[in-house]
Amino acid sequence: MAEPSADTAGRRSRPRLLSVVAPAFNEAEGLPKFVQEVRSVLPPLADDYEILIVDDGSRDRTREVLKKLRTEEPRLRWLGLSRNFGHQAALVAGLEHARGDIVISMDSDMQHPPALLPRMVELWREGNDVVFTTKAISAGAFSWRRRLMMRIGYKVLKVVSGLNLTFGQSDFRLLDRVVLDALIAMPERDKFLRGLIDWVGFRQTGLEYQVGTRFAGTEKYTFRQLMHLVTTGVFSFTILPLRLFTAFGVTIALLSMLYGVVAAVAGGVALLTNNPALSPPGWATLAAAITLLGGIQLIGIGLLGEYIGRIYDETKRRPTYVIGASDPREP
Fold first, then answer.
1. Which of 145, 126, 147, 143 is nearest to 135 (CA)?
2. Do 177 and 305 sit in the same domain of this protein?
3. Which tens digit of pLDDT belongs to each residue from 113-148?
4. How many domains is the chain partitioned into structurally?
């Protein structure tokens, strides 16, 4: 797709086509409101626009609602995955099928405010290729467990992976077509989008937003999904855990050698002085050492198995998602 031209001030001109991509899982009640709100802000932002909603194997009436909305809004497109593949997979499906010069990904539950879209497009016109957003984490926005989990997760990702992720960063973002094409070209099956977008570079800037109130339904993101996101980020971007275990093993070996020298000296002194009390304890020390080393080895094997398992998943080359149905007017 052709790159939008620049205006006389050196800024980018309006995009020819703007795509909004939104995964949906059991969002039948809230989708009409979401489409209405997004549609109300898009016309001034681009020559044309499309709203692409990905039904992630919903078990409610989401598919029927999408079909009805399609008859009312010709710029609405939808994809239906064959089952629930998860939020990230649905997001990847939408990004891979978006046609726009710029693509904005957001959730369809109204917690990502559509009112922020004009500012995101304005920042793109100023020359930014990626406009990411961060949640303003207030006491009322999430439970204390969720806030604690998010803080720990982002801290671990930033320290271990080396990624420059901002605390509270979400999947509500704008991507220029050149960035999106670079992401789509990456062969990973299990994509950690937040990390990959940071990794590809380009000019990036951020916006903070207040998490909106869900129009309908309940929170779909579970603790298990958040943990999967963190572990995917860690194991996709670094082998530091393996290197730490190597360093830990060397440290344990050196300490064991030191203890052996100390024990030998103490045993020699006890023998020369005929004082058994100076002898180092035997069976208890041996049992503790064996138990400690056994536990460390099992953890190390688990880490190694995690990496090997992910390699195995990638070599199978199964698709990230399977489309079960789509708008019959799709090409």
1. 147
2. no
3. 898 999 999 999 998 999 988 877 654 555 566 666
4. 2
